[in-house]
Amino acid sequence: MESRFHSVKLLEDKCKGCTNCIKRCPTEAIRVREGKAVINAARCIDCGECVRTCENHAKAIIANSLEDLKEFDYNIALPAPALYSQIGKASGPDEVVWALKCIGFDAVCDVSFGADIITECTRRYIRRTPQPRPLISSACPAVVRLVQVRFPGLIPHLARMESPMYAAARIARARVGAELGIADDRIGVFFISPCAAKVTAVISPLGSEKSYVNGALAVSDIYGQLMANLGCGGSARPIFRGSGLGFGWAVDDGELRALGDNVKALAVDGIHNVIGVLEEADSGRLQRVDYIEALACQTGCVGGPANVENPFVARVRMQNVSAGINSEALRDARSVALDIIEEFGEDAFGMHELIQPLAGMELAECLESAIARMGELEKIVAELPGLDCGACGSPTCRTHAEDVVCGQASETDCVFKLRERMQRMAEDLLRLARMDLPSMARRDDK
Question: Per-residue pLDDT tens for 73-97?
Answer without folding.
Answer: 999 999 999 999 998 876 789 999 9
